Amino acid sequence: MICQVCRRFSREDGRELLKCLTSNIFKCPKLTLLSRLPSVTELRVSDCNEVLLGSISNLKILTLLKVSKNNKLIYLPQCMLLNLTPLNQLYISSFSKLNYLPTELVGLGALETLDISWCDEFESFSEQGMEGLKSLKNLGLHGCRKFTTSSEELQHLSCLEKLTLTGCPKLVALPDGIKYLNSLHLQISGYCIEIQSSSNAPYGFQTTNWWPKEPIGSPKLAVLLEALWYIPALQSLNISCYPNLASLPHWLGDLTSLQTLIIYDCPKLSSLLASIQGLTKLQKLAFRKYPELVKRCEKETGED
C-alpha cells in the first residue's frame, strides 16, 4: 500500500475493509496507528514513522514481521514487540542508525528466525534480550559493518540450528556458547551474498545476490575458523567470498560430524589437505569457480 493521505486504521466503519488487509505498508508518512486488524498474521512495513512502528504491538496474532528502511531511528520503539507472543519470523533491514534491539525481544518465545541486514551501526545483541529466545533456530546477520559478539549474548540460544554471518568485518570471534549446540549449520561470507544449496543448480549451488557483490571488509577468517574446532555438532559449513583464503585448517578432519562442506569464490585455494579424509560422515563436497580443484577431487582420478 502506498498512501499519502491515510492517517489511522481505527474507525468502526472501516472494520470490514481492514479484514482484507493482510501484509504490506509502504511509504505512508501520515499513517500513525495500526489497530483493529484481527486477520493480519504477516506484516511488511517500509519507510514508515516511529509512531506507526510502535503501534505494531496491537497486532497480537502476527507470525511474520518485516520492517525496513529508516535512516533516523537509533533504536526500535520500546513497545513495538510487546504482545507479539506468536511471532515466528522477524526481519529488520536498512535501519542505518540502529544500535540495538529492544529488551522486549525477550518476550518472543515462539521466534524461530531472526534476520538483520544492512544495519551499519548495529554492534551487538543484549544478553537480556536474547535469553528469552528459547525457540530460535535461524539467526542471520548481513552487511552489519560494526557487529561484534560475545559468548554471553548467544549462550541462551539452545535451539539454534543455522547461523549465517555475511559481510560483518568487525566480527573476529564466534560465541563460545555454540559449542554446546546439538546441531549447527554455519555460513560465513566476506561479502553480502547468499549461497543456498540446490540439487537442480550447477555444482549444487543456487546463488542469490542481495547486494552488489563487493567486499565491505574481510574479517579475520582464520580466527573464526579456529572456533569451529570446538563445535562437535557442526553438520554444515559454507565458506564464501574470501579472496585471501589459501588453505583450509589442518584440523578440519577432526570435524567428524560434518556432512556438508561448500566453498565458493576463494580463488587462492588450490588444494585440499589430507586430513579431509577424516570427514567420514561427509555427504556433499561442493566447490564453485575452482576448475583445477574440481579436477583434483574427481573420483578415482583426482589427486585429492
TrEMBL record:
GO terms for biological process: defense response. InterPro entries: LRR_dom_sf, LRR_R13L1-DRL21. The lineage of its organism: Eukaryota, Viridiplantae, Streptophyta, Embryophyta, Tracheophyta. The keyword Ribonucleoprotein does not apply. The keyword Electron transport does not apply. It comes from the Eukaryota. This is R13L1/DRL21-like LRR repeat region domain-containing protein. It holds the Pfam family LRR_R13L1-DRL21. Keywords: Leucine-rich repeat, Plant defense. Residues 223-288 form the R13L1/DRL21-like LRR repeat region domain. It comes from Dipteronia sinensis.
